[in-house]
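Known limitations

Files may contain more than one protein. Parsers should not assume a single record per file. Below, a two-record file is shown to illustrate correct handling: read the sequence, read the token line, then continue until end of file.
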Amino acid sequence: MAYHWPGNVRELENVIERAVILSDDGVIHAYHLPPTLQTAETSGTRYRGSLEARLESVERELIVDALKGAGGNMAKASRELGLSERVIALRVEKYGIDFRLFRPKAN
């Protein structure tokens, strides 16, 4: 949302369609996009902070993604990430992640 798109909506649609076609794993990666959209400098979204802060940010995102995929089940998420249940519990606490938010809603 922070990126200024230099074209119109139709051009954006074409770029996304092309990226979807090029993707072989169901995920759009930066290399599927035009070169002008591949770098943080070009897009104006360069990350600021120390290496440790960056790694923690990536780690938190991976844990959240695993919890989403596991429906909030910490044991299943820990297996997906190759961590023990104790380690994922410590990381969830460290990052203040509420795993219950990822559980399926009861009707």
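...continuing to the second record:
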Amino acid sequence: MKTSSWEYAKDAFGIEADSIKTAFNSINRDAFEKAVNVLAKAERIAASGCGHSGIACRHFAHSMCCIELPARFISPSEAVHGATGFLKKGDVMVLASRGGKTSELLPIMEICKQKGVAIISITENMESPLALGADIVIKMHVEREADKYNSQGTTSFIVLSVIFDALQVALLEETDYREEQFALIHPGGAVGERLHS
């Protein structure tokens, strides 16, 4: 391996760690609290995004299920072919896009508005269509991506994932979710073994 390859790999740790530290300072507490409140009360939660944002959204939907808040990831392509039928009035759709201009997400936003579904957007661009059209906006801030061209979805993926993790741990507290509840739905693997020992 090239010496420079090792150096770039090492730098990635520092770049991403620094971005996580600074990302929190960009989050508006009032917006975050509103997001927690609507998510805690929703019967159903959906999340959608493209590329790395979509992968983070899949993780978020699974995290919600782990604290018994029914959720699913809806792919942008399926969303406009009937999958938004999963959502009813009073439910929540989470849309994630760093730039806030992802064209595939904009029709989903319009469907949700017509159905009375609350929209939470997570984006860096507060002047973007995704931010301006949402009910609640959580601002993400990314110093730079970890690669040398500042173009790969590396740091932005990590920051979005941390925001989703922060929502989950806040909701765990907000809903008084208990470890014994999780033990019932997670008997498998090392975690299940620990919870049932």
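Parsers that stop after the first record will miss the second one. For reference, the second record is described as follows. The radius of gyration is 18 Å.
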